[in-house]
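Consider this one:
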Amino acid sequence: MTGGYPDDPWALLAAGATEVLASADGLDVLPGVAARIRRWHQVDRIVQSLPAAGGLVGESPALRRALRTLVEIARFSDAPVLIQGESGTGKELAARLVHTLDPKRRSGPLVVVDCTTIVANLSAPQLFGHERGAFTGAHSARSGAFADAHRGVLFLDEVGELPESLQPELLRVLQERTFRPLGSSTWQKTDFRLVCATNRNLEELEKAGRFRRDLRSRLSAVTVDMPPLSDRRDDIPALARHFLGQVLQTKPPVIETAVERILTVRPYPGNVRELRHLLAQIAVGYVGDGRITVGMVPEAERPGAVARKGTTERTLRAAVREALDDGLDLRGLKSAVAEIAVEIALADCGGQLGRAAERLGVTTRALQLRKAMPAPGAG
C-alpha cells in the first residue's frame, strides 16, 4: 500500500492479507513484492507435487496451511522445527517431509528417537552412545542418536516426555554441537537439524516446572500445527480411498454414499491413525472388484453402535475431567487407566491371560510383563 504504514497492520493480516508493505510511491517495494511472489510460487509448486503420504493426503485449508509452512521451513531454512498436534495427526510424516525437502540434510540419515521410551539415568547411551566397558553389559562401543544423525535430521518424537535430567544435556548439544559418549574422555562434533513433535503443551509443562524454558525456546524456533481430523473432514473421502488402495494393493474401490457418510460424520479421537485402522477393518470384507458397501462396515461402526459409543465417550470424558480436577496429570492418568483396564479384563476373563490380552488388544507376553512390573510408586 502507498501513503505510509497503516496504524493497525495486524487487522489487515487478520482480514486475510498475507503480507503488508508500505511505500511512498509503490516503486521501492517492488523488488520485495516480486521476491515474495516467487517464494510463494515455489512453495505452492512443491506442495502440489508432494507424493501422497498417509495423513498428509487432502485439500482442506487446514492441511494446506500446515503443508505450506512445512515446505517453506524445510526448503528455505535450517531452523529447528517443533511440530504440534494431537496423537494420530501425522506428526512423524511431517518430520519425514522436512527431511526429504531439506536440500542440505536429505542425503543424510533421519534418526528417530521416541522420547516416551527414554528413562532418566538409563537411556543416556541411546542419545550419547558409549564406549566399551562404560557400564555393566557394555561389551562393545556403540554410537548414539547424536552421532548417527550427523549431517542429517534428528527427530525427537513426543519431546514433552523427555526426562528433566536429560533436558540440559540436549540443550548443551544444541548450543555447542559437541557431545561426549559415556565412558569416553573425547568430545565429538555433530551437525544435525533438529525436528521435534509433541501432543502436549510445552508452555504448560514449563509453567509446571517440567520443561526448561531455554530448551523450549530453542526447540520452537518455528512451530507447525498439524490439524486434527475434525478440522479437515472434507479430506476424509480422499484419505479413505488412499488407505483402501494401500491395504488392498489395488486401485481404490468406489465407496458407497452411505458408507462415505458414516466415515465423514464419525468422531475420530485418534485422528488419521484411527481412520486408517477403521479402513483396514472394512477392507477385510472386500472381495473382487466391487464397491465398498454397508455390509463391510464392522457392526461396532454402524449408526446404532456409533450412538452408543458416543454415550460411552461422554461418560469417559466426564471421568477424565474429574480425575484432572483432582490433580492427576496425564502421565498418572495413562498409568491409572491402563492398570484399571488390566484389572477389569483379567477379572472378566477369570484370570486367563490369553483371553484378557485378546480383549485388551495386546500380546500375552506384554500383559505378563505389565503384571510383573511394580506398581507406580512402589518401593
Summary: The longest helix spans residues 303-325.
